[in-house]
Amino acid sequence: MTVTWEESGWEQVAPGVGRCRLPVWDCTAGLVVGTDAVLLVDAGSSLSEGARLRAEARALTGRHVTHLALTHPHFDHVLGAAAFAGAEVFGAVGMETVLTARGREELRADAVRHGLDARTAEEAADALTPPRHAVSGEWTLDLGGRQVLLANVGPGHTAHDLTVLVPGDPEVVFCGDLVEESGEPQAGPDAVPSQWPAALDRLLALGGEDARYVPGHGAVVDAAFVRAQREVLAGRFGVSD
């Protein structure tokens, strides 16, 4: 028996498209439902959080998640990925180089620094494997009655930023942490600040003025918000047009 978006606690962004805001780090997970397949966008910060998302997706759709898109390789977005055994996993090209043994150790350490239980972080990091499908440029997924575009518009927030565009009325764009609403955009040591504004230009060109943009953290925003954040980032990092 399936449940409605409202009953599940998820927010319906467009027909067949929803998102939820996970606790602690306010990380977004997205869900796109086709007639033949189900796509999840980002997997949460632990195996238990991934399992929660898997169960909620099943309750909402009546089917298992068949595809998983990881927007970038930060712990709060990827450490739940191993909970989706059997799903086709996508990431930006080069993401596999981050998820080596050394990279997984850095993810584990970063998660612990941010407050995740050490044993929980270690378990999730050990189970994590690189995405099977590396997206360079654009990749169209056919979910049955609905085509979804995976677009590698970065680098910016990281060197491996993947966005998800869902055509419809309205069009929905899952931005990952290229866009943040609940706080200032975070530029860690793996960010590429000089190219971040250009990544947002590409994001806006793909989504257009009327799309609903879903940040990696925070409330759904519009094109004007993304454009304003682009100008803030350009000023912050001294990037000229």
Summarize the model shown.
The chain is α/β, with parallel strands linked by helices and 241 residues long.
| Cα separation of the termini | 52 Å
Question: Could you spell the SSE succession in H and E letters?
Answer: HEEEEHEHEHHHEEEEEHEH
In terms of DSSP E residues, the strand content is 15-25%
**Mean pLDDT, all residues:** 95
Taking the sheet with the most strands, its summary is:
7 strands, mixed
Q: Tell me how many strands there are.
A: 12
Point out poorly predicted stretches: none
Structural class by sheet pairing and helices = alpha/beta
Sheet with the most strands: spatial strand order:
1-2-3-4-5-6-7
Tell me what you see in this structure:
This protein has 241 residues and is of the alpha/beta class. It is 32% helix and 24% strand. The protein is built from 8 helices and 12 strands. The strands form 2 sheets. Strands 1-2-3-4-5-6-7 form a 7-stranded mixed sheet, covered by helices on one side. The protein has a 5-stranded mixed sheet with strand order 8-9-10-11-12, with helices on one face. Helix 5 runs antiparallel to helix 6 and helix 7 runs antiparallel to helix 8. The protein starts with a helix and ends with a helix.
